[in-house]
TrEMBL record:
Protein's GO biological process: tRNA methylation
Transmembrane intervals: none
Keywords in alphabetical order: Cytoplasm, Methyltransferase, S-adenosyl-L-methionine, Transferase, tRNA processing
Pfam families to which the protein is assigned, alphabetical: TRM5-TYW2_MTfase (PF02475), Trm5_N (PF18093), TYW2_N_2 (PF25133)
Residue ranges annotated for the SAM-dependent methyltransferase TRM5/TYW2-type domain, each copy included: 81-328
GO terms, molecular function: methyltransferase activity
Key word S-adenosyl-L-methionine present: yes
Superkingdom to which the source organism belongs: Archaea
Protein name: Class I SAM-dependent methyltransferase
InterPro entries: MeTrfase_TRM5/TYW2, SAM-dependent_MTases_sf, TRM5-TYW2-like_MTfase, TRM5/TYW2-like_N, Trm5a/b_N
Amino acid sequence: MSVPCVAVERERGETVRERLADAGVLDGDHEIDVEGDTIYIPVADPKGVPADLADRVVERDATERDRPKTPAEILGYEPSLERLGDIVIVDEDDNERAAEIAAAVMASDIPCETVLNRASPIEGELRVRKWDVLAGNGTETVHREYGHEFRLDVAEVYFSPRLATERHRVIEQVEPDESVVDMFAGVGPYAIPMAARGAAVVACDLNERAVEYLRENAERNGVADRVTAIAGDVRETTGRYANTADRLVMNLPHSAGEFLETAAELAGDECVIHYYDIQHEDNPFGPGRRAISAAAGDEYEIAVETERVVRSYAPHEYNVCLDVRLSRA
C-alpha cells in the first residue's frame, strides 16, 4: 500500500523519527523501511511534517503493522475513551468498571501515561472539572494538534480535543498580517496556529493558569513574537485594541452573547466574528444572528457567511458556530 513517507539518510533515521513523533505525525500503522542508505519513515499527516523535512516526503509502498492490542480486545467490549496527549479519559459512573477499563488501557498498546475518570461536570467561571486518577499520577500533558503542541493541565484549564476539526476549519481562514483577538483563548489552540499563519494575535483568558500555559505554548511553537497574552476579563483588558480586529474568535458558547458589545468595540472596519453558541435544534442559529445584529447596531452591516453545527451538545441542543462578517456602514 502506498503511503507518504519521509525519506532521509539512514544515519539520521532515529533523530528524524523522534522529531516526527514529537510533531504527532508519525504513522504507527505502517513499518519503517530501509533501502540502501535511505530510510523511509511513514507519516500520517504530510502537512504536519516539520518545514525543513517537507521536501523529503515521498509516496512509497509500506508494510502494514500487525494491529496493536486494544482495550476492547482485552475487555471483550468497546469502552468509551478519549485521548488527550498521553492521557486517556474515561467517563464511567461505576467505579469498578472504570478501574477495569483503566487496567485494560494500561495493558494495551495505546501510548498512555495516565488514565483519568471524570469526577464532576464542568464547573464555575473557569470551566474546569475534577478528576479521579485511575492510573499514573498526573493531570498535565502535551497535546499535539495539526502540527502544534499544547502543554496543559486538565485539572486547571478547559480543553476539548473533540473540537480539533472545528478549530482547524477556522484557523485555515486566517491570512498573514491579520489582527486577531481571541477573546477566550485558553491555552492557545486557536491563537497559536493563527499566529503561525502570520497573524498578530491578542489572546485573552480569565483563567490566569491558562494564560501561563498560553505563553509557554507560544514559545514552544515559535510564535511568541506574534501572540500577546492577557489575563483577565476581555471586557476590561482590551480597550487599547478597540477598532483594530480583522477577526474575532468567541468560543465561549454558553455566554458569548454577554461579550458581543465588546466584540463590536474591538472590530475594525471589516471584521469576521466566529461566534459559538448552544441552542435548541428547532432554531440553532436565529438567536445568535439576532444577538450579533443587536450588538452591531447601525454602525455595521452584517453578513452571515457560515452557519455550522459543530456537534450535538445535549438532547435536542446543538453547539453551533456562526461566521459573521461585519462591515462598517
